[in-house]
Amino acid sequence: MRIRQVKRRKKPSSSTRMERLTRSTWVLKERRTRSIPQPFRFTVVTAGVPSHTAWVALARRAEELGSATLVVPDRTIIGFAPLTALAVAAEATTSLRIGSRVFCNDYRHPALLAKEVATLDVLSDGRFELGLGSGHGITSNWAFPLRMRAPA
Fold this sequence. Notes:
Blueprint: E1 2-5, E2 26-29, E3 43-45, H1 52-64, E4 69-73, H2 82-92, E5 97-101, E6 103-104, H3 110-123, E7 128-129, E8 132-133
Helix pairs in contact: 1-2, 2-3
């Protein structure tokens, strides 16, 4: 939207509100644009399954059903390690995007995480989607003797 200032008219020809505007009144002028409609996407969120065979089958089934992305949470007490699980899922599929349902900032050094996810993105032919966050909560850290950093 563009904003333009309406100049004061000396003699309004009618009693419409638009013609009674003063010099200090701002009017929004709508700009007509065309947008390309985006397709609706589905994401599968899973923490893991009991075996390699079941994990590969889950990833392939998600791709068959038309899901756009498979994401894995970064939790300490449940599920697979996300980077390894995502690498296996990327290898087992051809078009399914893979991603993290937020990597916890306190679990890994940012430089090492950046290298790991850049490698995963290259090896998956650009199908990786990164999610960053502060973690699930204090209960996630009970499994490790980690101290959460104070918010900045």
